[in-house]
Amino acid sequence: MLSIDNMEPKAFSLLISALLIATVHSSRKMSVSIIPSNGEIYVGETKYFMCKATQEAELKWVTTEGDLEDEPGRFETEKVDETLIGVNVTLSSIEPDQVIKCQGETDSGESSEQEITLSVIQRPKIVGDFGSKKEFTAGSLVKIPCLAEGIPKPKVSWMRNGKAVSGSQGRISVHADGSLQIDQIQLEDSGIYSCAASIDVRGEKDQKSVSITVNAAPVVRLPNKHLNATSKSNTSLTCSVTGNPAPHITWRRGEQPVLHDGEKYILSSNGQKLLIVDLDKSDEGEYTCNATNSLGMESASLVLEVTSEHEKGLGAGVIVGILLILFLVVMLAVDLTCFRTRRRGVFMYISTNLLGKSVPRVKLEETEVKKGSTDKNQVVNISGIDA
């Protein structure tokens, strides 16, 4: 019988080591884990999953219907070693979620399992004929669809020239199906419109842009209908014109066309400004700005009046001087009247109260006073009583 007392030291050490290893293995609980733990797979793509055991075990993949069998183009399993197996999963189409499990069992009968849910996801994508350029006529109703695919369903938003378009901005609105609608489209609605389909939880986005051009008949605006200018000076007549295609602009005075000659008449490159040099009376009259394109024609007119230097009239300083003189004359007349009747007028008040000068009484008044005194002394005493 084998006894510890009879064992060689080397054999004894080996026995102790074996016992320790057996004790460690028996104290560890076997478990399995699946890496990665996220079962989301992009449609049409392949994802690799590993099942790792903490001990050597018999490992396998199973489904709710039994063992997972290899299926080319869908499931491909492989055994790496006694603690690791893997599976390639390809989801080529949109399908319901599916649960698969990794099961492991050791020789001692200890078992463990881990499951993962395989989910199909799809990046956002704008589909259909979106186009890169579109043309419309002013006043028409415009609707631009933006169809988007993705799992989960993407959020659709619009931007115009880099600025967000909300659900409703007057004539511009975004429908629930993602389409953009513009009521009574106008020339100013032209620009670059971008549709974006996004899945924010994954930070994914697809975007397409379209250039919208609006064709419109000309619209002509003049800053004023009447213009005054001085002879020998230069003056500019300006009309503001919008329209697409770009309108052709011409000018006329009365029924006569006004042409660029570089001397008397100078037209800007776009024709919207007419400079008239060295004005004289013969330049007076009605000037008309006319704009024409393939969609229509519009014109606007103004009257130019030329004033000669000698017709300019009195200046502001002269007018003020005349008014001041008239005021002084009126005040002097009032003061003389007051002086004769009440002995004091405005100028006399200023002289006596402000300048401290005395003013002699009117001789006529002194004579009247003396006459009154004489008449009193000549009263006849009939009653014998002193007056």
TrEMBL record:
<dbReference type="GO" id="GO:0005886">
    <property type="term" value="C:plasma membrane"/>
</dbReference>
<protein>
    <submittedName>
        <fullName>Neural cell adhesion molecule 1-like</fullName>
    </submittedName>
</protein>
<dbReference type="InterPro" id="IPR007110">
    <property type="entry name" value="Ig-like_dom"/>
</dbReference>
<keyword id="KW-1133">Transmembrane helix</keyword>
<dbReference type="Pfam" id="PF07679">
    <property type="entry name" value="I-set"/>
</dbReference>
<keyword id="KW-0393">Immunoglobulin domain</keyword>
<dbReference type="GO" id="GO:0030424">
    <property type="term" value="C:axon"/>
</dbReference>
<dbReference type="GO" id="GO:0050808">
    <property type="term" value="P:synapse organization"/>
</dbReference>
<keyword id="KW-0812">Transmembrane</keyword>
<dbReference type="InterPro" id="IPR036179">
    <property type="entry name" value="Ig-like_dom_sf"/>
</dbReference>
<keyword id="KW-1015">Disulfide bond</keyword>
<dbReference type="InterPro" id="IPR003598">
    <property type="entry name" value="Ig_sub2"/>
</dbReference>
<dbReference type="InterPro" id="IPR013783">
    <property type="entry name" value="Ig-like_fold"/>
</dbReference>
<dbReference type="Pfam" id="PF13927">
    <property type="entry name" value="Ig_3"/>
</dbReference>
<feature type="transmembrane region" description="Helical">
    <location>
        <begin position="314"/>
        <end position="334"/>
    </location>
</feature>
<feature type="domain" description="Ig-like">
    <location>
        <begin position="218"/>
        <end position="307"/>
    </location>
</feature>
<dbReference type="GO" id="GO:0008046">
    <property type="term" value="F:axon guidance receptor activity"/>
</dbReference>
<dbReference type="GO" id="GO:0007156">
    <property type="term" value="P:homophilic cell adhesion via plasma membrane adhesion molecules"/>
</dbReference>
<dbReference type="GO" id="GO:0043025">
    <property type="term" value="C:neuronal cell body"/>
</dbReference>
<keyword id="KW-0732">Signal</keyword>
<dbReference type="InterPro" id="IPR013098">
    <property type="entry name" value="Ig_I-set"/>
</dbReference>
<feature type="signal peptide">
    <location>
        <begin position="1"/>
        <end position="26"/>
    </location>
</feature>
<dbReference type="InterPro" id="IPR003599">
    <property type="entry name" value="Ig_sub"/>
</dbReference>
<feature type="domain" description="Ig-like">
    <location>
        <begin position="124"/>
        <end position="211"/>
    </location>
</feature>
<dbReference type="InterPro" id="IPR009138">
    <property type="entry name" value="Neural_cell_adh"/>
</dbReference>
<dbReference type="InterPro" id="IPR050958">
    <property type="entry name" value="Cell_Adh-Cytoskel_Orgn"/>
</dbReference>
<keyword id="KW-0472">Membrane</keyword>
<keyword id="KW-0325">Glycoprotein</keyword>
